[in-house]
Amino acid sequence: MAFSRLFAHSVADQPECHWEPLSAHLKAVGALAAEFASHFGAGQFAGAMGLLHDIGKCSAAYQRYIRQPQDGPLKGPDHSTAGAKEACAAYGKLFGRLLAFGIAGHHSGLMDGIKLNERLAKAVEDYSGWTTEAGPLPDLAGLEDEQRQIMGNGIHPTFSGAFFVRMLFSCLVDADFIATERFYDRAHGKAPSERGGVLRQEHLDKIRRFLASHRREDTPVNVLRSQILDHANAQAAQPPGLFTLTVPTGGGKTLTSLSFAAEHALAHGLRRIVYVIPFTSIIEQTAAVFRDDVGLGDAVLEHHSSFDPEGREPASGNDTEREGAAGLAKLRRDTENWDAPIVVTTAVQFFESLFAARTSKARKLHNLARSVIVLDEAQSIPVHLLRPCMAAIDELARNYGASVVLCTATQPALRVWDEALPKPRNGKCEGLDIPDHRELAPDPAGLYEKLRRVRVEWLREPVSDEAVSARFATQPQMLCIVNSRAHARELYGLLREQGQEGAAHLTTLMCARHRREVLARLREDLKKGRPVRLVATSLIEAGVDISFPEVWRAVSGLASIAQAAGRCNRNGELGPLGEALGRTVVFEPAGRRTPDAIKPFYQAAREVLKRNDDPLALEAVREYYRWLYWAQGYEALDRAHLAPGETLEIMRAIMETTRSLTFPFATIARAFRLIDEVMDPIIVPFDDAARKAIDELRFAEFPPAGVQRRLQQYVVPVPAKLRADWLAKGVVEAIRPDDYGDRFVVLTEERPGELPPLYDLNAGLQIDGDPAIRSSEDNIF
Question: By residue range, what is the domain housing residue 648?
């Protein structure tokens, strides 16, 4: 059966004259994809992908499918293989395959090269007539010119080809999402959704005004903070690329890095700032400072992974194009693509997206090109994925016009010159090419000495909870940080039993909104000299602006010890810098096993603690990372976990498949996990604002704009197995499971308007005695 007109998308209850012609869709996607890829010099590559991606819809089988009633089968005939075949025919075995990966996977995701071979050999429905619909393709010579611009990766040259495929894939799927969304908006008489934007002078002006109005030189610490800020800003004219910002905790590096990023971006025409934070527990705080305090407002996009639809997205073979097939499809279409002036996100979201295979997670990647990426607490990059993460960082700076700032108080010795990453065969050192003049702080070693505010003591004999509690009794303002939530809860309980005034507790079992309320109260108590005896997990270490005269830290790596020390005498309250020092005590908890995830870091820290009077000095920190990386071994720096007992060397997997262009994209995506344990969110109806957002989800046809973002501050992450068990028992309930599956799960209330019985104002979510969550504590920050 021949059809006089070919369509890409139908519209429910509207005649064909209102449907989207296939030719219009192909050209719209091709133009958008080319625009996106032009930022890294690959517009013709991406334009060709856009023109070819849906040519399989020329088949009679697809056109019959699209004309079926809307309640017919959701999955249509394969329409993505045809474009992959034609890409190979038009552009040959090299360029054709680079395009074919993205075209074949533009619904189901990037696949392994072996699977692509099967798709290319597959018989498909006749799609003749596609040349009329797509129009002329870019010529091969144009693609060859663009390909010559790509330089080999500094960690391993073969990494560049695979990463290029990912970036092209990102351009295609984001263009396809946006073009489809725009068509349906117009079809229903709505203005197309406003999206994103780039960093402009008005944003820089707001940052400058805020910093000028808050500039203080009333204390030595504030004088140094101003000097650090001015020095960093003065280097904004340096060419884009890799930078370090090494500033002791409390030196103002968050606002300094934001200011440099904005000055640098406007000086070089870079498009946005992407601020990457390691811990979900503090992302809301940083985003709130940028949005509310600095006054950047809606220019700031806060993107978590709390309600990530990836786990609910079909893994393969999904050629569904039906409008409004389910609420989840709408949610996926609205997944953030980082098209915003300033993005604040998590390290998990950032790095896992760089190695993702699925469409909704990968669509944002092209927006990293020509951006400033600030990796806050850069030392938190997981050791077992260090080399692929370094390769991705190098690639963004080398081939995609990005500037990447490694921002930390304890630089993780990732530079070639640090000589911490020797290759096993030739002994040469691997690392990022960041010379000394790319350091944004003035004289980091001297700066550390000037900002020194603590003395670190290492107690080599194990210390009981009773001994820690006895020290608390003599110190009305003291912080103790331990390695597990169970230990924190028990130590806090001991303080309560003893009636110690000001006993407090912070844990990731509290939702973010709850933690913020607790911290606000504690800061006020500290300011007014009231007793504050706080027991916390590591969540308090990064980015939390709070200061105690004495801090105890259970054994951990040196970076964690430095972060703990950053909560001690933070603003030099105890007296002159370098003279009046706060006390930071490192101790081994008696009767408690050091978590396996922490052992190698503490072993390296022990060597430094033995040999250095001041283990936080810059050379001691560099020595720590040398110990850590040498002890792990070169191979351990690229050891992703596919399954229990099964690992994958990502860099080797890419190297071994480069010649054949059979990159194992899907396998790498499954293996690349910053946190091994799969965590799922539980929403806590903590206050009226949370209950209002929950009701919006329950009763709106589709989730209102921003409701997911509002609910992020009320989420507690728990192991997937535990949440599934609680769903079965009715402890939690899924909101509209027919529409959203188990995406939105809420803690069940006994009485409307009251906190659920399983949520405690002192300890958060009550999971006492549940072994599933105890086994996951090492992975939660």
Answer: 638-671
